[in-house]
Each structure stands twice: as structure tokens, then as C-alpha cells.
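Continued from yesterday's entry.
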Amino acid sequence: MRIQHGLYLSDVSVIFCDADQMGVTSVFSYALSDADYLEKLEAFLRQRQPGAFNVYLDLMGEEYKQESIPHISGRDRDALLDRKSKSLFPSADLVWKKHLRREKTGRKDDVYLLVGLSLPSSVDHIFDALVQAKYQIAGVYSLSILEQQIHANLELSEQSLLVSRVLGSPEGKRIYRQTFFKDGHLAMSRVTSINGETDEQVFSQLMIEIERMRHFLAGTRQLNTANKLVVRSAFSEEEASRFLRYEVNNERLKIENIQLPSLAKKVGLGRTKVFSSLAELLIVGASQKLISTHFKPKGLTNVFNVLKTKRMMRAVTFVLLLVSTCVAGFVAYTAKVKNDQLQVLSFRVQGLEQQRAQLLDNVQETEVSATKMKQLVELSHDISTYQFGPDKVLEVIARAYRGFKYISIEDIKWIDKPLNQQGNNRRHRGYSEPFIMKLKAARQFELKVALPSSLGNREILENIERFLNALRELPEVTDVRRKQAALNTSENAEMAASLGSASSLSKPVEFTLSITMEL
């Protein structure tokens, strides 16, 4: 939220202004030396009703310290910084702290910049009036700290002194702020009041104050006397041109001028109007760039924070309400689509039920007797039990084959020639149904096996004979014969060949067995 109004407080005046991208416009200005300044300010604020505004402090009672503390975090660090601030600034009303760097040697402590500010009685009275009237104070800023925050946009210098005008100088006086930066960090700042009307009177005294500042910095060993002190003036274009024409014969100083419009572009303000002072640029920058408040005086910003929280809650509530409305609309739309789909399915179901009813009306009912149903069940069971599936045939042969490690099965062949049923009816006498007799008819298979010739004729014949006996012992096998062999065997054999060339030790001895099986 950009704050469009500001209350500027210096040691000599109070100014209420409007701030936007085009600059700062003063709408109320009053000297703090007048006894009725507080009544005038209160009357103006009651009439104006400005809403939320910032407070900008351009006071001389600021102290600056750089302190090293152990590298800790969380509440312990905050408590240590609070104790350090109270010991360094026992009479300060406001304190600001910023982490600068971490040391690279030793304990690697953290270095902090601490700023303490003691409020003059006039400013303290204004704060009390603002608290009692419950005005919306968005933030409290120090102009010297704002200078620190924009100093990164200036050319880096080892040691520099930034000189700028304080707003609201009384007639016959000009008030300047001198801010010293060491290696780009704020080291100290002081306010100087100069009496005079002409440029010669003012600038001569200003140069004396600048030299006094340089002498103080050198005496406190904050200044490297081997190098020049860069003095940067941040005045309006007219005042800057007059200041640069003033002859300065000091070899220990290097005078430079800062173009405020150019600085505004670097900061990101994008202004076209000419600034009258650096203070105006800092006020516009704080209001437009949403810089975090420097100080949080007790009770001063409570009203604004409460209203800000309420606005955030209203915004969140509005977003949630909008999201809820969108979700409800989506759910309603989805429900409508699903309802339409359900209606379509209902119509389809009704059509299918009508078709089913028509089919049932046209179906001729046929009653099946219990006897026929029983026959159908028995027939289905017989088909499942006595059909010659490969798995059943292989399971029978596997039972006989178990334990014969020298016999290898080379081929199994199904013989389709019909068998003479005489002598093969030992387990199905009494069946008269032609289909059952055909289903349970015995089937003949040819099983081709081989044994290694290295076993010798006797052992080969013994293994074949034991395998035949194992097949005969199976209840499903009705007959087993050696149909073809490469050795001359018993009287039951039907020989197809003699030992011949098969007796070679390099070839296995093959046998062809005829197996008759019924399930």
C-alpha cells in the first residue's frame, strides 16, 4: 500500500505534505518555535482527515555505533542487541539496527550498525497528540537512514560526506545535514545551522562546518587522512550551481555535485519534475518504494496496523468467498452434467427393459424333465473326465517315468487308427450308450525313448524292461509293447531292426513303444 501523505519533523519546523511520483507538495508548515504549533497541527489534521500517513524525522539528536556481537540467531540475538542498544543509548527514545557484515577472522562475529535517536520535547508532544487522536501512522523514518539506503546508487568511495538541505529552515537561516559514509556504510550524521542571507555568507560558513567535520573525523580516527574526503552536495540545480561557483581552496577535499533527477532514476522513481532538495527525494522514495519502517514507537502505529490487518482479513475473506462461489458454480455445473448423463442412462435402461420384455413375450418356454437334466449333468461329467487331453496323457507317462535318469523321451505320437475293442473292456462293461463307448474307447500312443549306448546291452535292456513294467502297473495303461528296437530282446518283442550301425558308442540306442491307454 503506497502512502500518499507525510508528516516531516525537524528541530525547527513541522511540515505536512503530499507525496507522489511527481514530487512533494507542502500543504501545512509551521515553526516549532511558535507556542501554538501543536494546536495548529491538530486543527489542520482534524480538518484534513488525511487517513494513513508516514512520519519523517530529520533531527540532530542521532547517535551511530558499529558493534560486533557473537554469531547467534533467533531470540538470543534480539535480546543481546536490545541489551547492547540500552547500554550504548541509555536516553534514546528510538533505536534502529541493521546487520552490515560478518567478520572473516577470529570469532567471525556479526557487525551491526546501531542508531539511537533522542526526541526533542516538541516532537515528543506531537507524538503524544497523534497517539491520543488515533491517527493512522503507517511508519516512522529517519532521513539519515534513508540516505544510507540510497547510498548504494552513488559511486563507491572510501570516505565521503553527503551534504543536503533540511526542509523548513526559518528566515535568515539555512540548515544543512552532513552525513559521513565509511566504505559505503553510514558512520555518523550531524545537523548544522548557518546564519546568513547571501550565498557568500552561507557557503563560507558551510565550508567552515565541512572542514570542522573533517577535522573531527580525523581526530576520532574515522578518516584516512592520506586520501581526500569526497564532499557530495545534494542540492537543487540552482543552489548546486551557485555552490560549485564558490571558490574552495582546500586540497584535502574533493567537491562533487549529485544530480537529483539522475539519482531519482537510479533509485527507480522515474521522475520528470525537479526536486528542491534531497529530503524530498527521500520522502518520495520511502512512500513509493514501500521501504520498511525504521522505528515502531509504542502506540503510534497500532491504529494503522489494526486497520491494515482488517483490510487484509477483508481481502482474504473476499478471495475465499470468490473461490467458494467459483467452486459452488463448478459443482453445480458438474452436478447438472451428471444429472443429464443419468437421465440419458435411465432412458437407455428403460429401452433395454422394454426389449427384454418383448423378448420374454416371444420366447417359447420348454420344460426339461429331471431325468434328462440328470443325464446332461452326467454326460458333461463323463466328457470332462474321459477326454484324452494332453495334460492327462503326459501326467500318466510322467508317473511311470519317475526315477529313470538314463532314459530320455524323444517323441510322443498320437495314433488315430481305430482299435479292436475286444479284450479292452475290463473297466466299462455294461455301458450300452454308443457315445459313451466312443468317448471311453482306448487310445494308442507311440513313445520313442533313447538310452546312451555307453551303458552296455544288458543294462540298456534292464532299464527298458523296468520302464515297461512301470507303465504296465499304471491303472490307465491297458497294454504296452516294444514296437521297434535296436537290440534283440525277449520273446514278446516285435523287432524292427538289428544292432547294425546303431551299436556305435557315439549314438544312443532308441526304442519305440506302443502304449494303449484309457482314462
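--- second protein ---
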Amino acid sequence: MIDLTPSSWLTQRFGTDSPRWRLPPDSNALYLSDADDRMIVAIALSNAQAEDVRSLAGSTATVAIETQLEGTPLGLILIGRRTDHDEWRGVATWCNDTAAVRREMERGLNFSEQVISEVSSLIVIVDDNGNIKRFNRECERLSGKTEAEVMGKNALELFFSAEESEKIRANLTTFFRSMQSWETERHILTKDGPRLIWWRNRLVRNATVDQWFLVCSGTDITEQRRAQARLEEQASTDSTTGLPNRHAIQNIINLAVATKPAKPFDLLFLDLDNFKNINDHYGHAMGDLLIARVGQALREQIGPGDALARFGGDEFLLLLYDATPEKTASVCRQIRQLMETPFTLQHIQVYSGCSIGVASFPADGESLSELVRNADTAMYAAKAANKGGVMYFSREMNNHLQESMWLDGGLRQALQEGQFSLHYQPQVCLRSMQAASVEALIRWQSTERGMVPPLSFIRYAEDSGLIKQIGRWVIREAMAQARRWSTLPQPLRISVNLSARQLGDPELLSDFMAAMQQHGFTQSPLDIELTESCIASDEARTIEIMSAMRALGVNIHLDDFGTGYSSLSQLTRLPLQVIKMDQSFIRAIPADARSMALLRSMVAVAQQLDFQIVAEGVETDSQLDFIREIGVDLAQGYHFARPMPADQLEQWLRQHGKP
């Protein structure tokens, strides 16, 4: 006879009151064993009992059986599940009150099973051969297959391409041997086609069956990757022409320069000759339409291996690989003939023409900046000599050098003699329609030439490094103005522009903090504006500077967004607060539906990333209405006010409402 008390017979025989059980596919013998399978006892089940046990599916459940051992009735509760197509395993427990134990065990088990089944992640459990042991509801939804259909089948054969399957199969043994968790991206085959899944994989031991299993938790990132690709494409593509933008062509040129062994190529710098007159006479919409048509026409002229991009404004860059003098001359001739033909824009014939400058690699430069600068110099020489002409860069082109020399001396003199001043353009809150902040813009009143436009000297200042000294003056002057405005009911924040050169200045932070201390600020009243090219030049250094600036109370603005290159992952890494939409998108309102759609999508992305949004270059009521509609926060442009000196801005504030 057997003592049926809970702590007696099972413990004496198996060393535990919850021995393992196993039911093979070809027998009704239920095998009970200890943890090491050294003590095994077989119990004969009736056909009905065996059928009950074999009804267990992939989720853990319980079955109560009444049997006999050594002539004594024995009540057991079997807790377990089907482990593959032809075997069932689990643990057994003794209990007088079978119904109560079954009910309490199922409550606990069903909760964990329900979590696995209902969790929004994909959960798949496989053995070291890749055979499926668990397959939750999210997997069923995505794959179109039920757990019953896939149980015991090989996941690699069901859901992966032959190539992917071989790669994974080769790695499985290594993973099980190393016992390390890992994460990876894999495409799987589903009822809706291939989907990209981010898998988090962990090896877990099932003590019940003494076996290791791979628990795979997955997230479908297909749409996320597609959205990121679209955003990256938008950020690297010029919205007006559909061509690569400035940053994209810079990457292409850098790659060509870095190719070893070096392969010669020619860089053509194209500038439309009559664009300003067309823009002024017919308006920006017509100007953008001309740019789009020119881009399309140029695209049709280039060879399949060459690269064309809109560099900015009315400028295009064309990179000719494997260039020979004959090939370059032929392409320039074709472009000139093309541009001599009128473009029909909205039933109006427009003549433009273009001037072309050519720089050759490596003869005329061995870096991106040198090649672009020399091609630009040659283009200006062509424009000065004869609009519609072509000029090849030569070291004898002194006009540009002379201008550079004048700028070098003039800018240094301007710093010494106080010829610079700051003008301020308000940024208006579209909810209150009052100025919320201002952007500081430098002006140069030369004693020799009078008012020199910023576009005439900023580029040289950046190339020469003088921008660092000019930038220090701007920061100090803006900080002083912020102190003067600190008595306003709500002091205006002032944003200043920083270039890539300034970000590389090791004294930038110390100069900034010294200016704050000089004017008694513990938190900065200034914000900084960076272009996408600044960030792309050295992301790690930029993030370091931005983080230090943020600690001082500075808000970081990403200026001219959409004209450079900012990936979604990059935007999430940067400590940004404000996105400034480039004015080229605003000018397209309301004529260019594609640009408006692109602007709407970029605003939506910026809102999802919790950025404040500023629209630059707002000039008309229709532009204002549209940016309001899509949720832009702030706007600046001639519709509100032109840049003006501080005293005029104060008068403007009194007339239009104090901040």
C-alpha cells in the first residue's frame, strides 16, 4: 500500500512532490521521473485518459487523472503542454481535492499564458533546431497562420527566405553555445509580404523538460523604416527640382575625391544669368517653376554615370566622371544650346541662359571646398566676361582674389572701427500675433563701399576664418542688447546664427559664458541657430557643443530645415528645441502643391518629435493662412517686418503690441 499524504510517496520515490511526466506519441504509458531521469515509473493510462492528455496544446494547461500505483488509487494533476507534434511533457502533483488544485493552478498559469498570447509584441519560442514551441496571437495576426498550424514546424523554413534561413541556421548553434542575448533586424515572410522585424532574442532554460529554448520578442518596424527612408529622401532632395540638394552632391563629390586610385573628373558650376530679373518681374512662383524646368532639362542632358544637383538658388552642380576635354566641351556646348532655348512657363516664353565654370580634379583642387570654390570662381569669371559663356578655372583668375583681399582687409577694419551693427527681425507667435523673439542679423556699413550686403561677405568670412571674430562680436552685442531689453514686461529672446567654423572654435563656450557674466546673466537670453550642414560636418562635436549650450539656458534652432540632410535618427539624437522651415518652402505657397504637401509632412514629423516650428520668409496672407492651418508655431518675414535696428524694433513693438 502507498501512503498518499502529500509529503510521502512521491517525495520518497522521486525526491520531489512534483515529478516530471512525459507521454510519448505511440503509447498510453505515462512516465514519471525525477529531475535527472534516473528514477522512472510508468503508469498505464486508459485510452480516454491518454486522449485527455493529448488534447493539451501549445499553451500550458492541466489535466486531472485517477490511476493506480502498486494497487493503490492515486489522484494526479498533470500540468504541461504539447512540446512538439508528437510528445507532451510537464510536471505532476498529488492532491486529494483535484478540482480545487486544478482551478487554482489554471488561474496562475492562464495569466502568464494570456500575457504571452495577448502582448502586442511578436513572441516566438523555438528550440535549437528552430522548431516552433510557442507562437502568440500577434504572430498569428501578422503571419496569417495559427499556432496549431505551425507548432513543431521549423520557423526558418516557414518565415524566412532561403538565403536568410541559411544565415540564421548557421548562427543558431553558435548562439546556443554562447548563451548570450542579442538583437537583430530580419525580414520575415507574412501574409502581406515581407516585413522587417526588430528581434530581441534571449535563451531561457525550461527546468520542466531540462532544455534551453530561444525566446524571440519582435517588433514590426517596417513602416518606421519606410517613413525614415522617405524623410531622408526628402531631406536630401531639392523640393523644387527633385534633384539631389547641396548636401547630397557634397557627399557625392567627397566620395569621388576619396576614391583610390584617384580618377579624374570635372565639376561644372552652373548659374542662371537672367534669373533675378525673371524672379523680380514675374514673382517667386514663376522663378521656382523656371528652376524646376531647368533642372528637368539638365537631367535629360547628363550621362547615366554623371551626377547633377541643385546647389542653391539658381545654381546647379554637374559632376562629369571620366572627363576628357572633349567630353566636357561637348556637355558645356549642349547645356548652352539648351539654355538659349526659351522656356514656356504658364504661356509665357522666358529666356534665361547660364554661365558655366569648370574645375578639374585633381588639377584644380583635391578637396570638396577647393573644387567648388574654384568652379564658382570660374563661373563668376564667365559671367563677368560674357554671360552665357564657359570658363575653365585657372590660377590667373585674379578678380576673385582681389575681391577676397579687399574683404579680408575690410572686415578686419570693420571689427576695429565698429562698422558692424545688428538688425533684428521679429518672430511672431501665430496664436497671439505678438513678437515672441527676434533673430539678430549682422549689417556692415563700410566707409569705402557703404552698406555691404551680408551675402557679399559672410561666405568669405567663413572661408577665411574671420567669422570666428565676427561671431564673438555678434554674441557680445546681442547679449548687451538683451540686457537693455531685460526691463520689458516679458524680455525678448534673441537668436544668433552660428556657422560650422564657429562651432569648431575651442573658445566658443568660454566666450559665450564671458559675455553672459559681463552682462549679469545666469541663464542665457540668447538662442543659437545652426544649419544642417553645421551638424553634418562633425555630429559628435556638434552634440557636445549643443549640450553645453543647453546647460546655459540656450535653445537650439535648426535653421533652413529641408535644404540639407538630416535623418530621422539624427534629429532624435540632437538636443534641438526649434525647427526653422526654409523660406524656399514658404515661397512655394500657394502655387506648388508638392512643396506644400512636403511642408505639411515635415511639420507633422517635427510635431511628433516635439519641436517648436518656425516658418521663415512669410510674405503674403495666403502663406500665413497655410502655415497656421498646418500647425506652425512662429513665423518671420516681410509680412510682419523687415530686419531693423533696435530702436526701430522698439517702436515697432509699441505699434504692434509688446511681447
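Residues 362 and 389 are 23 Å apart (CA to CA). The chain has a mean pLDDT of 85. Will compare against the first tomorrow.
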